[in-house]
Amino acid sequence: MNTILCKTMKELISAAALNFSRSRLMPPDVNIWNVVKNNPSSIQDMEKDWNMACLLYVNNYFEGNFNLSEFEDECYYEFENIWLDDIKKFRAYHLFLNYPSNTEEQNYYAVCDKLRKDLYEFSPLIEETEEEKFSRIKDFEQVKNYLQKNYSSNSTKRKTIITKKAARIYQTTGDNKNMVLAKDYVNNFYDHIIPAVTKNNSKSISNVFEAFKYKSIINAFEAKIAISYIDKTFIGKKQPVEESTMVL
Q1: Is the pTM of this model over 0.85?
Q2: pLDDT at 245 over 50
Q3: Which of 37, 78, 83, 166 sits at 20 to 30 Å (Cα–Cα) from 173?
C-alpha cells in the first residue's frame, strides 16, 4: 500500500490555493501573471484560498475509498483542521450545481443523510468475519498510535482541541457553557474511540455517538475514524442505534 506523504498533500493543497487566487484575481482575457504581479492577494484572501483548497482535498479524500492509514500521520492535521459541517456545506453546494431546483435545505439534508448512512448503515445479512476484523484493527494501528501519542489526558493537543471546539460552540451558538460542552465531547470521543474500534465495546461506542450529538464541532478526522473503523454490523445487531439519536 502506497503512503500518501504529507509533503505531497501540502503541495497539492498549495497548487489548488494558487489556482483559487488566480481565479479570484483574473478578469477575462487578461494575462494572469500580470494580474497576480500587480494585484497581490491580501493575507486574508490568501488564508481564504488556502482554507478552501484544504477543504477541497480533505473532502476528496474523505469521500473516496481512502483510509487514514494510507496517509502519513503528519497529514492528519489537515483533517483535524476541517469541520465536518464545512464538508456538508461544500457538498451541498455541489449538489445545487447538479440539482438547481432543490432548495438549499434539501441539498444539505441529503448530504447529512448520506453521512449518516456511511456511519450507521449495515446489512443484517452480513457478519464481520474474524479475518475482516483482524484486517480492520490492523489497519487502525497507525491511527491508534497517533491518538495515544497526541490525545492522552492532559496532553497539549487535547487541551488545544478543547479550546478550539469551545470557541466554535460559542461562535455558532453563543452558549456560555461552551468549555464544558467541548470537554464533554473530547472526553467522550477520545477516551472511548480506541476500545470502540478494537474491542467493539458497547459503552465506548455509545460514548462516541454521544460526542457526535454536538454536530457543529465534529472534525473530519474524527468522523473519518468512526466511519472507517467502527464495526457497522456490531452497531446494528448488538448496539442498536435509535433513529432519534442518529447524528451527522
Answers
A1: no
A2: no
A3: 78
